[in-house]
């Protein structure tokens, strides 16, 4: 009996840590844009001499991520109810990768803004999904501290983003910012791959027991 209980506990923890990887994805995205904008190579590439409204364009690059985040949060509930927790996690992670790829390959401000917006929407969906998913998988007495792992991973991701930016500053040319932006992708790919092995939440509507308060 003890062995069975321990096995179940370790399985649950593996699920929680997998879902919480999304926190690192969010943290890296939040932190990496600040270090990227500080790179001279990025500014020289995106804003060559003679570019007008540099301040406004810089603000657009940053703010479109937040705008996408707001939109993602608005549609998050609908996706969670229609697709379930697991598929919503997969879909949002996939588009995080797409947005990060656009940013990494950006040949100018327009594609950079598109990449920031796509990734912002995806992260706006991903961010609320994780604590909901974790709390529904966890036992009632463990929900608070297990959801705390998700918050811890956001802080770790933000810390990693700043170290990535610092490390890339020793490179030269476009590598200094393309590599930094590209480092958003590996953690997201890992999360997406491991998510294929996650169970669906037992509290999703398709699996939950009938509502006893609903009139028949």
Looking at the structure, what is the overall shape?
Answer: elongated
Q: In percent, how much strand structure appears in the residues?
A: under 5%
Derived from helix and strand composition plus strand pairing, the structural class reads mainly alpha
What is the helical fraction, as a range of percent?
over 70%
Which parts are unreliable, with pLDDT below 50 for 5 consecutive residues or more? 209-216
Mean pLDDT comes to 89
Distance between the termini: 41 Å
Q: How large is the count of helical segments?
A: 8
For the report, how would you describe the main beta sheet? Answer: none
Task: Give me the Rg, rounded.
Answer: 20 Å
- Helix-strand sequence: HHHHHHHH
Q: Number of DSSP strands?
A: 0
Account of the protein in words:
The protein has 216 residues and is an all-alpha fold. Helices cover 77% and strands 0% of the residues. The protein has eight helices and no strands. α1 (2-37) packs antiparallel against α5 (109-137), α1 packs antiparallel against α8 and α3 packs parallel to α5 (109-137).
Would you spell out the secondary-structure blueprint of this structure?
Blueprint: H1 2-37, H2 40-46, H3 54-83, H4 85-104, H5 109-137, H6 143-168, H7 175-182, H8 185-195
Helix pairs in contact: 1-5, 1-6, 1-7, 1-8, 3-4, 3-5, 4-5, 4-7, 4-8, 5-6, 6-7
């Amino acid at each position: 009996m003890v062995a069975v209980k321990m096995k179940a506990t370790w399985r649950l923890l593996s699920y929680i840590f997998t879902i919480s990887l999304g926190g690192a994805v969010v943290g890296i995205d939040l932190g990496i844009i600040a270090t990227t904008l500080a790179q001279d190579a990025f500014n020289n590439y995106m804003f060559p001499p003679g570019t007008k409204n540099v301040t406004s364009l810089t603000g657009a690059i940053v703010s479109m991520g937040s705008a996408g985040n707001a939109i993602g949060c608005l549609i998050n509930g609908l996706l969670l109810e229609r697709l379930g927790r697991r598929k919503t996690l997969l879909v949002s992670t996939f588009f995080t990768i797409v947005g990060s790829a656009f940013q990494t390959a950006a040949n100018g401000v327009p594609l950079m803004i598109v990449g920031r917006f796509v990734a912002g929407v995806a992260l706006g969906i991903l961010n609320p999904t994780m604590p909901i998913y974790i709390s529904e998988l966890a036992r009632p007495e463990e929900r608070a501290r297990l959801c705390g792992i998700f918050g811890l991973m956001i802080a770790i991701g933000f810390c990693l983003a700043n170290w990535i930016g610092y490390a890339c500053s020793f490179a030269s040319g476009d590598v200094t910012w393309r590599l930094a932006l590209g480092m958003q992708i590996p953690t997201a790919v890992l999360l997406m791959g491991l998510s294929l092995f996650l169970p669906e939440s037992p509290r999703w509507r398709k699996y939950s027991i009938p509502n006893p308060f609903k009139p028949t």
